[in-house]
Amino acid sequence: MLSKNEILNRKKKFGFANEKFIEMFIWNFEIFKLLSRLSDSFVLKGGTAVQLYLPVENQRASIDLDITTPLQEEEIEEIFNRIEFVERYIPKRPVPRLLLMTYIAKPSSVMDDSVLEVKIDIFYDEHPMIKPKTIKKKKLFALDIDFPVKIVSKGYLIGDKLLTLATRSVGIPKHRVGELPKHVYDISKLTYNITKTDLNDLIYSFKYNLNREKKIKNIKVEDVKVMDDVLSTLDRFSRIDLKDGVIKRRILNFQSMYLTNLSRISFSEWILDAIRLKILMSLLKGKFRKKLSTKSVFERYSEVVHGLEELKKLNRKQRQEKSKEYLQKIRVPYWKVLKGKPLERIYLEFKYLEYR
Predict the structure, then answer these.
(1) How far apart, in Å, are the Cα atoms of 8 and each of 23, 59, 342?
(2) For 332-347, what is each residue's pLDDT tens digit?
(3) Nearest to 139, CA basis, from 4, 241, 229, 14
(4) Whole-model pTM?
(5) Which of 20, 179, 310, 326 could form a disulfide with 350 if both were Cys (CB 3.0 to 4.6 A apart)?
(6) Which helix (H) or strand (E) holds 301?
(7) Does the domain formed by 1-152 have CATH 3.30.1710?
């Protein structure tokens, strides 16, 4: 565990607002390291796992711990009973059919005399057919990882997190929609560069977790309807310059609490990321409707990302010409609003219309 001075130094170096969030993020890994010594059946997922796939300049804090395991409830309970500073949390209204155990870790803070509370969610009796990955070394803004951490694959994380955006069906409930920016942020950073393996894992994860959520919530909904639900959420993020001050406030709150100076981005960048994710989701929808092959999804999405990189090479005159070219092809109610917008925005809007 880092000392108080080490945490304060990292807070200053990376321009982080809250040292307690840094400390809780560190404790996520300390707790997982302890659990891994007691059993090799725990696999890290969620926001904490995401950071292990990102460079320092894109990382954020995560103040809780999500774990998946094939173990049964009794086996997990036996392991956690061996840890002194954790206690079982039993919700007043547990969700039927949800195989979830929650513990609260209460380590003493190194910053003051307070006691921290780190929530640990264990999704048990899970058997996804994707092998976890083990990361042995990784530089994070809050600490340097020098011990093996078993985590779900990058593609699995993306598929799982995409489902959280389906707020009208299987996604996060209404009382937690304030968390949407952190999920959109994580997905956007994970998906800028993806491999064929990532895409295959993403598709599997989306199907696997969607079927699980349907059973838990006991609902019948078509897969493409859930994807439309995700697209609807992303659409709100892609229009924050036209309307929706609520989303803007949520983004600002998220950035001030969870991001470093290196990882904070402008509203324009949030919009670009959201449109790019809309393109990816539309392509995935084509796959689920059996209109596109996985190969076609990969090639088209890779083309979009490559196109963004190519735009960076253009001079001012070339950018103006490209903007005019794309604007002439865009025929949507808000096309006039796009005049004067960055070329990247116009390009992505054009590609979205092409692939939706």
Answers:
(1) 10, 18, 38
(2) 666 677 888 999 999 9
(3) 14
(4) 0.96
(5) 326
(6) helix 294-311
(7) no
